[in-house]
Specification:
Blueprint: E1 4-12, H1 16-26, E2 32-38, H2 42-48, E3 54-63, H3 66-75, E4 85-90, H4 97-103, E5 119-127, H5 131-140, E6 147-152, H6 156-163, E7 170-179, H7 180-194, E8 203-209, E9 211-213, H8 216-221
Helix pairs in contact: 5-7
Amino acid sequence: MAGAVLMITITDRSRGGEFASWFQAQGASLILGALGRGTATTEVLDYLGLEATEKVVLLLAAPRSSRLVRKAARELWLDVPGRGILMTVPIASVGGARARDELLQWQAEEDDMEKEITHELIVVITNRGCTDQVMDAARSAGAAGGTTIQAKGTGTKLARKFLGVSLAAEKEMVFILTRIQDRTPIMKAVMAQAGMQTKAQSVAFSMPVTDLAGLRQLEEDA
């Protein structure tokens, strides 16, 4: 679907209500929230001014609008270290015209020209308790940190049939935002050090990030 994105916002849990209220005021009809945990090292936390690793991850569908991302960056103070980050990834389609109209009813202005993709979001699905193994591998290839949320897997018997391994039902999803040139080394490191042949049994994939706010200080230092 042209022009539709999934907005992913990560911030401290104490700000979750404030951020959700802001998106509702912009016209968002459905906001999903999940409790998360930051995985950044102490050095990175100090650099970004973060004092806690307890996070909330907000997800919502919206028309693509760089102006909306800039408005969020300005009004939610995302350029202030420690406030949080916002990224968007493309949505290919929405099932049903009614659901599409409900989710994408925002009054988006005409958007800017297409921008070059500079970042990707790596998503790693791993066995619960193996986040450190995944992040150690990712950091060895240049990742600064990530955010993890708990999940539950299904179809483990089918996976054993086709993959030849037994998969644990308790999972964690690790979100790692990275520059596009670092994606391949990070994913290779994760699969080599925490892949299906290890106790982590990780699966990794990546998605292009079309708009991004909240990483200015990191980008200026690069």
